Amino acid sequence: ETGVTQSPTHLIKTRGQQVTLRCSSQSGHNTVSWYQQALGQGPQFIFQYYREEENGRGNFPPRFSGLQFPNYSSELNVNALELDDSALYLCASSLGLADYNEQFFGPGTRLTVL
Amino acid sequence: DAKTTQPPSMDCAEGRAANLPCNHSTISGNEYVYWYRQIHSQGPQYIIHGLKNNETNEMASLIITEDRKSSTLILPHATLRDTAVYYCIVRVELGYSTLTFGKGTMLLVSP
Question: Looking at beta carbons, which residues of chain A come within 8 Å of B104?
Fold first, then answer.
């Protein structure tokens, strides 16, 4: 069984650029959630995808967007990068939407915006 | 949203029990209490969850008070590898499964 993987591990961008982060969910999981974790803070929910459809969204602007593919892997896209977007971006997969389903997290992508 | 309150940091000697408290006084009757931990430079890791009964697994025990307004995560024999930030989370009912993290408790296990 393969766990959640994310790529790249680290990324440096400049303000105004666009970035795409990738996530492969754990085998058999059809739900992917993305979180942003600023330094010293807990992860904050960005959005969730279930069977290729966005199923819920946190308090993030529209320049944060995503996709989920038929194999349930996912992308997080951020346009017009701002300095405050510097953070660890975490992807978590789970089986279905039920509240009791455990979410398995990947190691994250560290994004630095200069 | 039911919010949680945790101490910012705690210390524990290796081999001793670590008891991490969490207050969630506004929890609703059908909301679960979850515990995750995050070791430095890694993604959060699920530990345990419960509704109203005490729970135990290979990692930890979860004690929930009868009124459900607080809980305690117990690591029975802490090791150096248990040094991490521990998050107590009450599952938010938004029609989709998500986790709302606070700042958690930084547990430092020392030799």
Answer: 42
Residue tagged 């969204």 (tokens): A57
CA-closest candidate to residue A37, choices A45, A25, A48, A29: A45
pLDDT in tens, B51-96: 888 999 999 999 999 999 999 999 999 999 999 999 999 886 555 6
- Listed in order, strand segments (DSSP E) in A14-102 are 19-24, 31-37, 44-50, 53-57, 64-68, 74-78, 87-94
Q: For tokens 């819920």, what's the residue?
A: A56
Q: Which two tokens stand for residue A34?
A: 């993305």
The amino acid present at A85, given as its one-letter code, is D
Q: What is the pLDDT of residues A1-39, one digit of tens each?
A: 569 999 999 999 999 999 999 999 998 889 999 999 999
A41 contacts on B by Cβ (under 8 Å) = 103
Nearest to A101 among B44, B95, B97 (CB): B97
Find which of A46, A93, A103 to mutate to test the B interface (most B CBs within 10 Å of its CB).
A103
